[in-house]
Amino acid sequence: MELSNKSEYAILALLELATCYSRGEPLQIREIAALQHIPNRYLEQLLATLRRRGLIKSIRGAKGGYVLAREPRRITLLDALNCMEGLDTDVSNLEQNPQTLDGDVIQDVWQEARQAANAVLQKYTLQDLCERRASKERKELMYYI
C-alpha cells in the first residue's frame, strides 16, 4: 500500500487548516501552497474535492479562504483518504468470487491487511497529527540549542 501524492498533499493541506482551526482564521490557497510546497493549481483541485466531500468549507471575500468543516479531532486520516481516493473500506479490490483456492486465500489475507490499515487510519485524527508535529518541532528546537 502506498500513499499517493494526491492524498499526501490533501492531508498536508488539512494539517495546515487544522493548525488554524482554533483561531477561526481561514487560509488562502497561496498560503497553504507556500507552507507545504504544493503547486497552486494542483492544490485548487484538491481543495475543491475536499470541499465537495464536506471536509472543508470555503469562505468568500477579501479575507476569505478555507477552513475545516468540523473540529480537527473529528476528522480521521481514513476520512481524508476516502475523500481523495474514493475508497470503499468494505469492498476488496480483488475478485469477489475467486476462481481458485489460492485466490481465495490471497483475498482473505488482502482483506485482513486492508482492515488493519483502515483501523490504524481511523485511529488517527488531524488533531493527532498537529500534536505529533508540535512534539517533533519541540524536540528539534531542543536538539539545536
Protein architecture, described:
The chain has 145 residues and is mainly alpha-helical. It has a single domain, classed as Arc Repressor Mutant, subunit A. Helix content is 61%, strand content 6%. The chain contains six helices and two strands, in the order H-H-H-E-E-H-H-H. A two-stranded antiparallel sheet has the order 1-2. Mean pLDDT is 90; it is low at 89-95.
Structural shape: globular
SSE order, as H and E?
HHHEEHHH
Please tell me the CATH architecture by its name.
Answer: Orthogonal Bundle
Helix content: 55-70%
Unreliable sequence segments: 89-95
Overall pLDDT score: 90
Give the neighbour order of strands across the main sheet. Answer: 1-2
How would you summarize this macromolecular structure in one to three sentences?
It contains 6 helices and 2 strands.
